[in-house]
Amino acid sequence: MSKQRNTPDIPAEAFELYDRYAHGYIDRRQFLTGLGRLALGGMTALALFNALKPDYARAQQVSFNDPDIVASYRTFDSPDGHGEGRGYLVQPREWSQPAGTVLVVHENRGLNPYIEDVARRLAKAGLTAFAPDALHPLGGYPGNDDDGRALQQQLDADKLTADFFAATRFLHSLEGGNGKLGVVGFCFGGGMANRLAAEQPQLVSAAVPFYGMPPALEKVADIRAALLIQMAENDERINGRWPAYEQALQRHGVRYQAFSYPGTQHGFHNDSTPRYHPEAAELAWSRTLGFFGEHLGG
Questions:
Q1: How many CA atoms lie less than 13 Å away from 192 in the CB half-sphere?
Q2: Is residue 23 in some structural domain?
Q3: What integer best gives the mean pLDDT of the chain?
Q4: Are residues 112 and 28 in the same domain?
């Protein structure tokens, strides 16, 4: 279990500003200016900024050298994307029969330590997990989220999508899989999980988007996967799209469950940041593992 981060009280408006900054709606100067208006009790804008940043040392739940898993980095062909992709592959050390596989899609900043840990958690639960790094064409995740976010914005969007499609094909064909593939993604990755379910229906059996944008609504009719949709209560940018998406899911008979977690912010599962909500994150994760157990079993 993650350690609870000891952070000062952060106003809700600061989380909203961080979400806008993290998704490119405002730049760093505008973000700090906005934080300056919220700074109270002697806390400066810079102190608020540092409090909102991830602390990956506190987030590790499964060690990279855990004896129950085997982890490595693997490359894959992506002819329609950047030519080659690379990701973090984590498998159970022992299994008695072919297992389900899960593609883990990161946020809009590359393959950071939090996402690698999510992949290890899945392997610890008996699934093969593969977490591609969208930043591989630019040298990989640079070691901090601000630089990672800037790098990901430089990538051609169509090639970026093609890389994740290629990663899905790579994982589906990987030896040891049982032919059933799931996708879990967070933020940008949640949107990609929705999109993969809609645009790779022949490959994706189950998808769990955490606070992700819906796919193009005209593509919803193509979804064959079961969906487990995880949302934060305080997330206007994502939640505003939900009613139309739900109507499309219902209209086309797509199997889905949707949960909104009270008192949570966008990113509540990310245990490296103060947006982390332990109770909601643990409940959402237990639902995720149960969902994959149901839909990716032998």
A1: 28
A2: yes
A3: 91
A4: no
In a shared domain, residues 282 and 134: yes
- Could you tell me the CATH number of the domain that includes residue 209? 3.40.50.1820
142, 148 in Cβ contact below 8 A? Answer: yes
User: If we measure between CA atoms, which residue out of 151, 146, 181, 178 comes closest to residue 167?
Assistant: 181
pTM (2 decimals)?
Answer: 0.89
- Indicate whether 102 pLDDT > 60: yes
For the record, the structure tokens of 140 come out as 């990989």
- The residue segments making up the domain with residue 195 are 62-295
Partnered with residue 210 across adjacent β-strands are 186, 230
34 and 166, same domain (yes or no): no
- Strands 128-132 and 83-92 turn out to be antiparallel
Examine the domain organization and report whether 115 and 254 are in the same domain: yes
Are 204 and 168 in contact, with CB atoms under 8 Å apart? Answer: yes
* Structure confidence by residue, pLDDT tens digits, 118-155: 999 999 999 999 999 999 999 999 999 889 999 999 99
The CB density around residue 114, as the number of other CB atoms within 10 Å, is 25
Cα separation of 122 and 126, whole Å? 7
pLDDT for 8 beyond 60: no
Number of domains observed in the structure of the chain: 2
User: Where do we find the tokens 């093609």?
Assistant: 162
